[in-house]
Each structure stands twice: as C-alpha cells, then as structure tokens.
Amino acid sequence: MAVPLENEKKKLNICLTHYLVGFTDGVSLEMDKHKKVFEDMGHTVTYLGGAVPDESKAGAFVIPEMDHRCDLAVKVYHNGYEKLDDFKDGAEFAAFINENANALEKKLVDFFEKHAIDLIICHNMLSHAVHPVLSVAMTTAIEKCNISRAIGYHHDFYWERPVFDKPTCAEIVAISDKYIPPLDTKVYKHCTINSIGAASLLQKKKLESVTIPNVFDYENGEEWRLDDYNRTLYDALGIDMNGDLVVLQATRIMKRKGIELAIEVVRRMVQMSPAFVGQTMYNGKKFTGKLHFVFPGLDQEPDREYVKFLDAQLSECGAKVHKINSMIGHIRVQRDQKKQYSLWDSYVISDLVTYPSIQEGWGNQYLEAIFAKKPQLLFEYPVYTTDIKSLGFRDIELGKNYSVSTEKSTGVEFVTVDPTIIEQAAKECMRVLFDQKEYRAMVEHNFEIAKKHLSYTALQKLWEQIFAKYD
Hints:
This protein is an alpha/beta fold. It has helices spanning 26-40, 71-81, 90-114, 132-144, 170-179, 195-205, 232-237, 259-272, 304-315, 343-348, 364-371, 382-388, 419-433, 436-453, 456-468, and strands at residues 13-20, 44-51, 60-62, 119-123, 150-154, 188-192, 210-211, 245-248, 291-295, 320-323, 328-329, 333-335, 338-342, 352-355, 376-378, 396-397, 403-406, 413-416.
C-alpha cells in the first residue's frame, strides 16, 4: 500500500508538467498556485515543460519536444486532423508517431529518474490531441519508471473542440482512445476544472474525476498596490492617474473571449462620459472625461480577419486603446532601464475589469479581478452559470444568451447581445464607478466569498482528497 500523501513523514518530489511553463496563460498561472500549496504542505515541486520565458528558466526544466508549437507537434497535428499528406497511409503515420514518442520517452525517463519523481501532474497533455507524440511518450515513460502516482489535470478535452472532429485516419483515433487520457485507474487519477468537464469525462471515457476550480491566495496573498515601480505605467500609457478612467480586458485576444461585447459597452460609456466630467469617482478623484481601454494579454487568435475587425471596432469606440503585451511578463523585470511590468500591475492601474467571454474552462481573470478588488462586467458563460454564480458573487452582467452576426464586407463572425442589455450594462458601470459606497460594497462582498470557497486552503483540502485515493 502506498504511504498516504497527506502523512507529514512522506514528503514527495512532485513534477508539474505542461507544454509551456512560466508564461501568463491560465495553465501556467494555475500551476504557480498549486506549486505554492504543495510546498506549504512540505513537498518539493519541479516544473517541466517545452518552453519557458527567459526570466523563469531558473525555476523550470525544458525538453523542447514537449512544446505543442514545435515542428514535430505541428506536423503530427496537421496529418492527424487536417490532411494526411506526409505519409502514404495511417500505418506509416502511426509508426512515425511511435518512433518519435520512443525518443521523447527516453528523455522523460531520464528526467524522472534523475529527479526521483514520486508524483507527476500532467496538465492538458493527457486530454488534448494537439500533441499526440507527447501524450504517448508521457504515458509510456510513467510506466517505464514504475511511477505509481500520476494525475491527469484536464482543463478541457479534445472531443469538445471542433478542430478534432475529423481525424484523417483510424490510427490517430486509436491513439486518442488509448492515451488521451490513459484508462489505468490504479496509476492515474483525474482532475477537471469544472463540473461540465467532469460530466464529459465520465460520459466519454467512463472515468471519474475530482473537480478542482481555479483558486487564488485570498488569505495570505500580498495586496497589489500602487508603488514606485508600477506608478510609471500611467505615464508610459499617457493616463492621468488623477482623473482618467481605466477599463482592463485582462484576457488573451481570442474569439471566445467575446471582446466585441466589451467594446460595445465601453463605446456607450464613452458616449455617457460628458455628463460625468468633474464628478467625483469612487476613489475621490474628479473625472476628466477620458477613458482608456487596456489589453495586456497575448494576441493568440488565428483568424486575423477577426482581429482586424476588433481593431476597427476599437478605433471607433472613443476610448484610448492600449495593447501592452510587449510590456507585460510573468514577473517584473528591468533591463537596460526598460521595465517589464507584471500582469498584476495592469490590474492596479485599472478601475473596471471586463470579462465578456462566451466560453471559459473556469475563469482565472475573474478571480484575479476579485483579488484586485475591481468590479467586473461579464457575460454569463456556461461554467460561470453552473459552478460560480451560485456562490453569490455580485457582478455587472451581460446575460447568458448571445447571437452570432456576420460582417457583410469581410464575412467575419462576431457575437452580439440585445442592445438594451449593452445600454443597461454601460449605465450600471458608470453608476458603480461614481458611487464609492456601492463600489466598495461590491468588491469587498466578492472578495469574502472567494476567500471562503476559492482560496489556497480550499485547494489544499481538495488535493488531500485526491491523494487519499492512492491509499
């Protein structure tokens, strides 16, 4: 019988692994939180990924072939789900996958043995089909090392994504069936990040899982404050910190983020602004009439026509738009007198956060805004409706129904909601921003709820439940 992991005498070497480590994407941010919890429990944590930013290299190990953007992964994805044109048939393609998986497996085995890994937590690589070579290699390496504890941490699944709907051959289907995720319930336990994912995994693979929501350190986290470092971000962006309003869209730029909905609300806020000039805002400052719309996230949208559409809408919304991803990193770094700000610094300078996503696995930016004590404008995406709203948060909402429209000149599809909802949301945003009592009541209410249900303490209890399953 395995020693119970919660036993203080049994301290583990835990490997947290993903395609990428140390970036500002949701998975990287969540891994940082789990690392902190595991270390507080007395365990040793090692990161392993296919790529890390320069400033994070000291804290992570890299095997480049693990990166889902590497040439190998791109080639396999293309032949498996777009067009099988680099191989004569599925059998030759499968042989190519297995040959490269064997090579990668050897590197993984060497790493696991060198670092005496006791527990491996695999983020997404056992639930996504974007890098089948890694899925196979990771599974076989765990088997070769006789590691008896491995956890598939699934943020979503390949069968939920339309790009994987049309596999090119039976062999790629067989690989997905066997390895994504593995079906060995003795070695592998499974986590999902929402109840929708848990139900999907049970229905598709007959595998039970523990739902681990995104969390934040609401109990002991250092408050994000204006300081000498981030104060200069106002000047860098030309923002008057004594009276301009700053709206933050903290997510990456992607279609499913529904950014066009936020743009419409900001457009109406700008139109309403003249009536508020000179009035006292929630922070005691007099409003100048200027609105800024800040985007710190990566542009990861492959449909460039959609991005052009967003840019056109932004240019006409009336706010001063700032795309600042080049200035934002995982941590603060200053090189040659040039500052890199953290994502948290963008929250510090903001007054309102927009979160209009139509689809999210959970909602990292939602929790970040609560920690930053900022009110939020959001669309009630499915997981918000099933897993979050019932906790009792107070937000400015855009409803849970949307329509898809098409721009005639370009054919670009975008989402819309009823104009009356946009109008009401804009009015509510302005009302809260100019009502100190309501502003503080809303953000403090949300913080206390998150502290109770979505804290590091809550996360530790969930991990203890999972560890107990190996007893």
